[in-house]
Amino acid sequence: MPVETNNNHNKPNKSPKPRQFGGSLLILLSFLLLLNLVVPSLFGQRQTQVPYSEFIAQVQNNQVEQAVVGSDRIEYTIKTQTPEGETVEQVFTTTPVALDLDLPKILREHDVEFSALPPSENAWIGTLFSWLIPPLIFFTIWGFLINRQGGGPAALTVGKSKARIYSEGITGVKFIDVAGVDEAKAELEEIIDFLKNAGKYTRLGAKIPKGVLLVGPPGTGKTMLAKAVAGEAGVPFFSISGSEFIELFVGVGASRVRDLFDQAKQQAPCIVFIDELDALGKSRGGAGPMMGGNDEREQTLNQLLSEMDGFDANTGVIIIAATNRPEVIDPALSRPGRFDRQVVVDRPDKSGREAILNVHARNVKLANDVNLSTIAARTPGFAGADLANLVNEAALLAARQNRQAVIMADFNEAIERLVAGLEKRSRVLNEVEKTTVAYHEVGHAIIGALMPGAGKVEKISVVPRGVGALGYTIQMPEEDRFLMIEDEIRGRIATLLGGRSAEETVFGKVSTGAADDIQKATDLAERAITIYGMNEKLGPVAFEKIQQQQFLEGYGNPRRSISPKVAEEIDREVKLTLDNAHHIALSILHYNRELLEETAQALLEKEILEGAKLRERLNQVQAPDELEEWLRTGKLSQDRPLMQSLLV
Ligand code: ADP
Ligand code: ZN
Q: Looking at 298, 307, 393, 441, which residue is catalytic?
């Protein structure tokens, strides 16, 4: 909560505070840095540099004795026998591929003695740094505080003294680098034309739009699009993130806005990009007590508004802002003459994903069996950034395997990594746990195989992955889906409860492993009733507020005010939904008991079941008579309690 009441920063008198302190500090630091760069290259000994993939291959052939791993250099020793029987040590270096988190694991597996890079030959520099930097930080902060106590235009100095340059110059990003967002591109074409041929529009008295708001989930390429607009028009690109505006000190944000626009106006025509506009433009009325009437945000926002109103539209400064939460943006920002254009940048559909994969695969060597269209089909919901990451992850996997090109299996493994996390074979389960997990997962798979709209079960595994998952079942949708139909929701709930039901069926008792499934199933059942109005008794009434309303009314109860009686009814119906789904899950497993048994045993033996073999098994799943009616109505023909006979 800002406690600052210093309001003098609006005065135009720039503070002549001495800034030499900071200046000399910078010079000293850069000198040291330079020294640090130069010294090793002068005195460092030369070793043979090998590609990273070769290094990994040598490790896997158990040739490597010892490795010293640095963030940008790995030095390692290989022992070889000369024909005379002497052992010679050879030292090599390699440059690691960034982000190879599996390296320590591989080294451990092949008994390589490894350590981190020790302070290098010029360790004295490091020592000097470690001696110098803490006091320097201390003095900087001290100087800064003293400076502030001078009162007056201190806050202005804080904003200015960063002397930030917001310009990124010409970006070089082009529209072809951004794929799968054709509609957004079409809308932005116009802006490019404005920037290139302003005269054409102004001659007729047309006003160039000042602000465009890009709306879409994170990683869909909003920043890239803004850069591409600048790149295509060949104008400079200025950028700042909304969260950078929000500082501890009141007034800093406002002064940054002023700086930014001062710089931009000097270089017009240009693009000013403001990321995370929601951090700044949060609806003022909506800020609940929890968030505080944030003075700083308010002032910064006002400054932005007045800057936007202040310059003539035809100066050629076009502001592109991005947000993934358009509903919380202050309405003042979307008035005409401000961000009056909204362009939606959504997650790509299948063909969009294929196009994005194509863009990112340009620089990667692909084997002939790689089919980007299949990969696109298997990755619904992935945004551009996820796909970029996927391609990189697959390339890393291929490099580790020392392959000439990236093959389809690398992509499949990479998808799984992104969906379910890294394999954690080190998490060793005991026999009972492993058996429980196996039956649990097969339970999900058997139920999932019968349910509508859920996609094929592609893989079941009892190899722990990611955070907390001891086993997993992967179901891949066959197409992108935007709606879920009633029966699919029921099916999903039953599938979620399938794991637990299998434990009950086989062991007669349940483990803690189903907690997450139960949570999700309950959530879904509740939403079906309180948001989607799918319950007969309660009807199409919204009992829950969706996020946007919640926000506008301040953070309050997510439920509408309802009578205790209705609340009771909701609870009862949620429970009934879950009970019925549970019953169906048990009933299906009961019908397919033998299949459950065989499949779980096969899974225990192989750890992973997938592909045609798995499909063959799951094709044998039999549907009990009551399934169809339950899917259609959500009800069971007789109001049966969970049949005890289904258990054990
Ligand atoms: P946002 O600003 O929407 O969060 P970014 O523009 O920062 O997303 O995207 C992050 C990265 O993801 C980009 O650098 C790019 O590599 C990749 N990416 C995202 N969307 C696309 C796209 N439509 N086409 C190609 N690459 C994309
Ligand atoms: Zn489960």
A: 441
